[in-house]
Amino acid sequence: MSRLELDDKRYEARPLLNQEQAARIKADGSRAMAGAERIEVNPKVMLGKPVIRGTRVPVELILRKLAEGATESDLLDGYPGLTVEDIKATIAYGADSVAHEESW
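and the corresponding structure tokens:
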């Protein structure tokens, strides 16, 4: 990693993706997190935001709805193509995303 010194502080440049994440990038530019086969990140779908595979339903939308108090039944009724497994994969993807964040 390269180092940059500013105001007597050292900062290390970090790659945007670690080796494990880089290995999951496919030839078409899409990528998937481990354990979340139902979630797709593809630059050609919703500008690359994570979505439930085969839909245009963003992971963020489902997580926000759950945070607002929506139940599984609410989501299944509101999004007919959604399954319980999709909801669980969305939560797992969110947890994976937070777990892979690096803090300074």
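(Above: one complete record from the training split.) The radius of gyration is 17 Å.
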